[in-house]
Design a protein that fits this description.
Number of helices: 9
Mean pLDDT: 88
Bound molecules: glutamic acid
Number of strands: 11
Distance between the termini: 15 Å
Radius of gyration: 21 Å
Strand order of the largest sheet: 3-2-1-10-11
Structural class: alpha/beta
Helix content: 25-40%
Low-confidence stretches: 159-170
């Protein structure tokens, strides 16, 4: 059974870019006779805007994108994240970290690695158990040990979709397949380092919550914006450590603002206008390479057009 999902963060209303991911995941589920779920990703509470969750659901409903089950809210699922972290700690895939941002910057400077403007440097591994652990300091955050790479044959929804190369020089290099972008590659330990699972402020990190929920909800196909593509290797590392299936991934094209930047809530993207849902959906469909309805049909045949796009999606996607 194909199970897809759309997982918005309620940090503001849907904008033209987020509708592309919503429509693509909906079409993908419809095209494959599957189910489509909606999950409100509200773990990063300081960034959440009160009421944005209901507003997003109403925008989806206005576009006729109705989930096949009642939506879930990540803020109500923290016991699952706790249980997963406990398992990762017990299996040696996660460890507590006492470092503040200042500590991390000092350790990076001592190694001669200076931060590029805007770029995060990989965590230097100060609190890794093999480096002495907490050294008597109080734990602040919990991190995934990216040097501990599990090669056990975790079940997968995509038998040939990703693989890991296991050489001594390249121990956490991960290859994975994106249905649109093709083969992708990331050396997680070098590129992002030991990433956070439970933050110093007590909030669950996106990487852990998304992996736990995709697994518990039985998601077989993840369709989301291309800006999230480089998170996928971290999520596959967590899936392997938790021995849960890896879904198939498809990352959709981004809608760019006039200045060429990715359209996002952070750069003030306008809320999606759903007063004419077929107009909004047509723009999203065009971004996905699906042609527009002929002139004169606008506002008349929303359901018919969605079904037609689903047929075209089925014809064009594997
Ligand atoms: N909540 C994430 C966002 O709104 C999407 C996560 C995902 O689809 O994996 O950017």
């Amino acid at each position: 059974m194909h199970i897809g999902r759309f997982a918005p963060s309620p940090t503001g209303p849907l904008h033209a870019g987020s509708l592309v991911a919503a429509l693509a995941s909906w079409l993908d589920a419809r095209a494959h006779g599957g189910r489509w779920l909606v999950r409100i990703e509200d773990v990063d509470t300081p960034r959440c805007v009160p009421g944005a969750d209901q507003f997003i659901l109403s925008q989806l409903a206005a576009c006729g994108l109705m989930p096949d089950e009642a939506p879930v809210w990540q803020s109500q699922r923290t016991t699952h994240y706790r249980a997963a972290l406990d398992r990762l700690v017990a299996s040696g895939h996660a460890y507590p970290c006492a470092c503040s941002r200042k500590d991390i910057e000092a350790a990076q400077a001592a190694r001669g690695t200076l931060r590029q403007r805007g770029a995060e440097l990989p965590y230097p591994g100060t609190c890794r158990p093999e480096h002495g652990g907490l050294n008597g300091r109080a734990p602040r955050a919990w991190r995934r040990h990216t040097g501990k790479f599990s090669f056990n044959d975790a079940p997968t929804h995509s038998p040939s979709a990703e693989s890991a190369t296991n050489s001594i020089a390249n121990v956490t290099s991960l290859h994975w397949h994106d249905r649109r972008l093709g083969t992708q590659h990331q050396h997680v330990e070098q590129a992002v380092g030991d990433f956070v699972l439970l933050r110093a402020d007590g909030l669950w990190a996106y990487q852990l919550a998304v992996v736990v929920d995709d697994a518990l909800q039985g998601i077989t196909h993840v369709v989301r914006g291309e800006d999230l593509a480089d998170n996928t290797p971290r999520q596959i590392l967590l899936q392997r450590a938790l021995a849960v299936p890896t879904p198939r991934y498809l990352h959709t094209p981004l809608v760019l603002a006039k200045d060429g930047q990715k359209l996002s809530k952070q750069n003030g993207a306008q809320a999606l206008d759903v007063s004419q849902p077929l107009v909004a959906l047509t723009h999203a469909a065009q971004t996905l390479g699906l042609s527009a309805p002929p002139a004169g049909t606008v506002g008349l045949a929303l359901a018919a057009w969605r079904d037609e796009w689903a047929r075209r999606w089925a014809a064009g996607s594997g």
